[in-house]
């Protein structure tokens, strides 16, 4: 193993603002930014049986454009087998104030291959171009890290990427990779000996000198598909890891217990003065709120619970909602979550973060929609299925997975691929016929969600065959990539 890790580099996060930082002074100012007209979508062929590279799609989301809701450009990656997944920016609102700054490079970690791509979106926003490839061999040699997932820009101009394991897929090898502003490997962010057992997503809140990360599972387990026995075997996580920021010292581990299995996405409230946030626990389908206590340690409580459905003709007698993504509006008024298996998106009012109120719900697919073999069994023994509408003559495949909200909070975009191996396991039709993207109209006064009938992007009709659509980013930043300091 020593030959695999020639140098285990550790890097300090720099001080000051980066030279390339755009964005907005505050989250509320961002809400008044221009309406989105383009969105970048990571699209996957890896794991679908097609020998084609994954690609970044540019979708026209300007309702006044003749190519509205169409893919107008595709940037294929130069290699096969990447599994593009999440994405981030080289700089964001954490660097607001530099007039020479630019949110120029979209950072695309490849969950399976370990490559990290930097894509230039500034030369031609409608047709991004490949700028640089970070070689996974370089990352492994200098840090021992593999399976990169979440990328966040830092106020120093560096980029931090969570990595879920070592090159063999062992969870014990996870940690945080630091890249400099030119995408060179600097080393690991966390201090030596401060790596938790599992990793996944992370969010930092500088005014509280804290970063918190979550824990999916061992890559050697989840890349093979979901096996419930692997949960019992301890191959999946249930913890939050609290670090000093920017120091990288693991200060506290929060055990979420059996109600907090597979904590995935994590978000602090956008207001940088706030010391609370939420994490979505996929398998148990609970939202957990975390918060700072008077003694400066962190606590947590169950905040929202999605009840499992009693079902027939499924792999288990009960089906969890499987909360796979959620986000918070920039004014911290609403929380939106996606139940990938059940098939609904929910809107909660969180103006009182300790007391969320369900104010909107819409069904956009799922395992219990009409036409599926799976039926829901009520307490009296009767059965039913959910009536899900077609959009522009298309039946909705799979379930809602990644979501992205417009800056003003009135439009929610939805894709339906989770991870190619899991897509094939739970929604084989999705792999066969391809993913799609929807837009949901949001009532931000009283609450409410409604499918926009004018918008449907069919990734089943791509030139190289059906692909899977995952994360979405606007050129101008959004509520799941920007952090304020």
Structure write-up:
With about 475 residues, the protein is mainly β. Helix content is about 5%, strand content about 35%. It is built from 6 helices and 33 strands. It has helices at about 25-30, 135-145, 220, 230, 420-425, 430-435, and strands at about 40-45, 55-60, 70-75, 90, 105-110, 115-120, 130-135, 145-155, 160-165, 175-180, 185-190, 200-205, 210-215, 240-245, 250-255, 265-270, 275-280, 285-290, 300-305, 310, 320, 325-330, 335-340, 345-350, 355-365, 375, 385, 405, 410-415, 435-440, 450, 455-460, 470-475. The strands form 8 sheets. Strands 28, 29, 30, 31 and 32 form a 5-stranded antiparallel sheet that branches. The protein has a 4-stranded antiparallel sheet with strand order 3-2-1-33, with no helix packed on it. A hairpin with a 5-residue loop joins strand 26 (about 375) and strand 27. The protein starts with about 25 loop residues before the first helix and ends in a 12-residue tail after the last strand. Mean pLDDT is about 95; it is low at about 1-5 and about 15-20.
Fold blueprint:
Elements: H1 27-30, E1 38-44, E2 55-60, E3 71-76, E4 88-89, E5 105-109, E6 116-120, E7 129-134, H2 136-143, E8 146-153, E9 159-165, E10 175-179, E11 185-188, E12 202-205, E13 210-213, H3 219-222, H4 228-232, E14 239-244, E15 250-255, E16 263-268, E17 276-281, E18 286-292, E19 298-305, E20 309-312, E21 318-319, E22 323-328, E23 334-339, E24 344-349, E25 357-363, E26 375-377, E27 383-384, E28 403-405, E29 411-415, H5 420-426, H6 428-433, E30 436-442, E31 449-451, E32 457-458, E33 468-473
Antiparallel strand pairs: 1-2, 1-33, 2-3, 4-5, 5-6, 6-7, 8-9, 9-10, 10-11, 12-13, 13-14, 14-15, 16-17, 17-18, 18-19, 20-21, 20-26, 22-23, 23-24, 24-25, 26-27, 28-29, 29-30, 30-31, 30-32
